[in-house]
Amino acid sequence: MPQLFTGTSGWAYPTWKPDFYPAKLAQKKFLSHYATQLNTVEVNFTFRQLVKESTIQNWIQQTPASFRFGVKAHQVITHIKRLKGAEDFVPRFLATIEPLASAGKLGPVLFQLPPNLKADAALLRDFLAILPRTLPTAFEFRHESWFADSTWDLLRSHQAAVCVAETETMTTPDVSTAAFAYYRFRKPNYTEEERRSMVARIGEHLTADRNVFAYFKHEETPEGARSAVALLRELVKA
C-alpha cells in the first residue's frame, strides 16, 4: 500500500510549546514526541555539516520503525561544487547517513540547487550517473530554466523525483518522475482552496500507488507542524 509521510523541515523548536510540544517537555525529548504525531522529518542541518553516527543512532532510537528521515544533501555538493566534480564527496556524505538506510528509516535525499544555477542537461546527467540507483533522491530546481521536458526525462531515467516546492515567488511544476512524490510547502499560509488542491494532488499520487513525502515550512510558530498533522489525519485512515 502506498504511504503518506508528512512532517516539517526540523523539529528542535522550543517556541512550538505549548501548542505542539507539552509546556514542560525537555528539548531532548522533542523528537520522540514529534514522532508520535508525524511520521517523517526533513533534516536540514546536514546541508551545513556531516552528521555524526552517534546523533543518527539517537534519532533511530527515538523514532518508531515506520518513521522516515528525509535528508538535505550537503552544500559542498549542491552549492560549492554545484554538482560538478562531486565524485569524491558524494560517497563521503552518503556514508554518514548509511545507518538510517540500514535501519530502514532513510527517506529521500534532497538535492536543493542554488537559485542561480541554470539548466545544464549534461551536468545533471553526469551527476545522476554517480548516484547509487537504490538511493531515493529528489531534486529542487530553483531556476525556471530547469522546468522543461528534458529535465523531467533525465530524472525519470534515474527514478529521481522532482521536488515540487511551493513558495510565495515560485512554484515547481507538479511532474511525476519517480515511484514517489516529494513536496515542500513553503508558503506562510494556505487558503482553504489551496489546501483542498493539496489534498487532491496527494490523493492522486496515493491512488497511483506512489508514496508521498510532504514537508511544511518550519518557523518559530508551530503552524507548519499543525498543518502537517491535519494533512496526515485527513488522508490516512485510522
Structure description:
It is a single chain. This protein has 238 residues and is of the alpha/beta class. The chain has one domain (4-235): Alpha-Beta Barrel (TIM Barrel), CATH 3.20.20. 36% of the residues lie in helices and 18% in strands. It has 8 helices and 8 strands. The protein has helices spanning 30-37, 53-62, 75-80, 89-102, 121-130, 149-157, 192-207, 223-235, and strands at 4-8, 40-43, 68-72, 106-112, 137-140, 161-166, 180-185, 211-216. An 8-stranded parallel β-sheet has the order 1-8-7-6-5-4-3-2, with helices on one face. Helix 2 runs parallel beside helix 4 (89-102) and helix 5 (121-130) runs parallel beside helix 6. 36% of the residues are buried. The mean pLDDT is 95.
SSE layout and pairings?
Elements: E1 4-8, H1 30-37, E2 40-43, H2 53-62, E3 68-72, H3 75-80, H4 89-102, E4 106-112, H5 121-130, E5 137-140, H6 149-157, E6 161-166, E7 180-185, H7 192-207, E8 211-216, H8 223-235
Parallel strand pairs: 1-8, 2-3, 3-4, 4-5, 5-6, 6-7, 7-8
Radius of gyration: 17 Å
- How helix-rich are the residues, as a percent range? 25-40%
CATH superfamily: Protein of unknown function UPF0759
Write down the oligomeric state.
Answer: single chain
CATH architecture: Alpha-Beta Barrel
